[in-house]
Every structure is written in C-alpha cells, then in structure tokens.
Design goal:
This protein has 157 residues and is of the alpha+beta class. Helix content is 35%, strand content 28%. The chain has a five-stranded mixed barrel with strand order 1-3-4-6-5.
C-alpha cells in the first residue's frame, strides 16, 4: 500500500508540472491586437500611451499607398474593420509582404507593430493577409452557383 501512495503522489506531481507548463506556454504565446478604434480611445484616455509599442490589426485603406523617400520606405493608411471613421497614417521602413495590396477590389488585412510619433504610426513590423487571394468574392460565389445550377445533373466536375 505505501508504494501505491508514493506512485499517486508522483503522478499528481507530474500532472501539476505538465499543467503549469501548458498554462504558461499558452499564456506567453497569446497575442492581443488593438483595433484602430481601441488605439485611438487609449490615446485619448492616456497621452503617454503613445510611448508604448503596440500591435494593431486593421485593413489597408484602398489606394492609400505611397512610396517614401528611401527605397524601403512606405506610407499607407489603416482603417478599423468595423468603424470606417477610425483611420490613421502608417509609415513602414522595410520590405513589403507579397500579400500587401491597396487595390480597391482587394481587401488586405494588416497587423502592424510600432508606436505613434508625430501623428503617424511608425511601424517596425508589418504582416498582411489578402483575403481576396484566398477567398472567393461574393460575385465569384454567385457566378459559380449559377454555373452549377445550369449544369446537367449527371455532369460531374
């Protein structure tokens, strides 16, 4: 019986260590992104918040891209996904991701990291996801549905 007690204590100890490692690993990998609306609200509440590096998730404003002075300098605007009145200019120095696009028919989500300096968000990191490259537009889905309805029932394709 004493051997079973030691085994159970050891088993509980191992389970506690594994649980702790999982909990700390998940906590450290969780990343929170502010929306442009949340970022603007934080600035209004606490002007010193501008000194803190933050991550912001939004959408690239169509046709807002401008090439900067240097070869790797880029300027564009970010807008909130839900509130189109919340926008701000971004300056990024670096290589643009392949999925960066500001065409009006392309919706490009961006995650930027950096801080506000003199009215412009100075991004040190830019990650993008161009949804239109991976998802069909509503028009394409509608056209596809019409094509499928027109196909004979015995056609497999």
């Amino acid at each position: 019986m004493p051997n079973n007690g030691r085994f159970m204590v050891g088993l509980v100890g191992v389970a506690a260590v594994v649980t702790y490692l999982i909990w700390t690993g998940v906590s450290e990998t969780m990343v929170y992104y502010l929306t442009p609306v949340e970022l603007i609200e934080r600035f209004e509440e606490d002007p010193s918040f501008r000194e803190v590096a933050v991550k912001v998730s939004g959408e690239v404003v169509p046709e807002s891209y401008r090439k900067g002075q240097g070869e790797l300098e880029h300027h564009f605007e970010i807008v909130d996904l839900e509130d189109e009145t919340a926008t701000f200019p971004v300056r990024y120095v670096g290589i643009l991701p392949d999925t960066f696009n500001d065409a009006p028919d392309m919706l490009t989500e961006a995650i930027i990291e950096g801080r506000f300096e003199e009215g412009t968000f100075e991004a040190t990191l830019l990650l993008t996801k161009c949804g239109s490259r991976f998802e069909a537009s509503k028009e394409q889905l509608h056209d596809q549905m019409q094509l499928q309805e027109q196909m004979p029932a015995d056609h497999i394709g």
